[in-house]
């Protein structure tokens, strides 16, 4: 059950009620990540306090009343307080996750824009055809850190597999297949 402001005001102290109302939608959006972390800590402490108190009270009441039914109704108020702070904690943690994700996306976009600005173009070539059209194998074009002789050597080498490497691959596959056949029990 989600608790409303009226339910919470009847149960909580003034400072606890202030923490609860800060977790609601209208005020939680204005909080910075540091404020959210502080609120999460305070909320977690209050939740743990009331949850532990509820357990202790329930055990003590059950011993006196000799029935668990009477114990559950006697400590209802403390249990509700624990539930209120658990709900508020979930709201604070959810908001912090969203804020941190947005900051991470913004930082990533900023880094990508800076990298694209340094390269002097919109971004790296998307596929092999664009890299070839750009006149290089990618790093030599984008970074500009290879010497002209190394770039010339890169352009002169064969990009695809040579006939020698293909035949070596096929003979190795044949040897492995034969070894598997030989190791099978008959």
**How large is the share of residues in beta strands?**
under 5%
Order of helices and strands: HHHHHHHHHH
Q: Round the mean pLDDT to the nearest integer and report it.
A: 79
| Bulk shape | elongated
Q: What fraction, in percent, of the residue positions are helical?
A: over 70%
Number of strands: 0
Task: Please give the radius of gyration in angstroms.
Answer: 33 Å
Biggest sheet record: none
Separate helix tally: 10
The rounded distance between the terminal residues' Cα atoms is 69 Å
How would you describe the overall organization of this protein?
- The protein is mainly α and 186 residues long.
- The protein has a domain at 5-119.
- The chain is 78% helix and 0% strand.
- The protein contains ten helices and no strands.
- It is elongated, with a radius of gyration of 33 Å.
- It starts with a helix and ends with a helix.
- Residues 138-142 have low confidence and may be disordered.
Structure in a nutshell:
With 186 residues, the protein is mainly alpha-helical.
């Amino acid at each position: 059950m989600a608790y409303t402001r009226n339910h919470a005001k009847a149960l909580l102290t003034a400072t606890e009620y202030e923490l609860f109302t800060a977790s609601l939608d209208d005020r939680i959006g204005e909080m910075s990540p540091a404020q959210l972390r502080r609120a999460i800590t305070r909320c977690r402490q209050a939740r743990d306090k009331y949850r532990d108190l509820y357990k202790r009270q329930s055990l003590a009441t059950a011993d006196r009343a000799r029935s668990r039914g009477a114990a559950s109704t006697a400590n209802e108020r403390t249990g509700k307080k624990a539930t209120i702070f658990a709900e508020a904690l979930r709201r604070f943690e959810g908001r912090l996750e969203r804020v941190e994700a947005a900051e991470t996306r913004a930082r990533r976009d900023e880094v990508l824009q800076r990298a694209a600005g340094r390269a002097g173009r919109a971004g790296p070539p998307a596929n092999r055809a664009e890299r070839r059209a750009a006149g290089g194998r990618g790093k030599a074009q984008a970074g500009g850190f290879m010497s002209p002789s190394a770039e010339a050597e890169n352009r002169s080498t064969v990009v695809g597999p040579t006939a020698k490497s293909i035949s070596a691959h096929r003979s190795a596959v044949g040897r492995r297949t034969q070894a598997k056949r030989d190791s099978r029990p008959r």
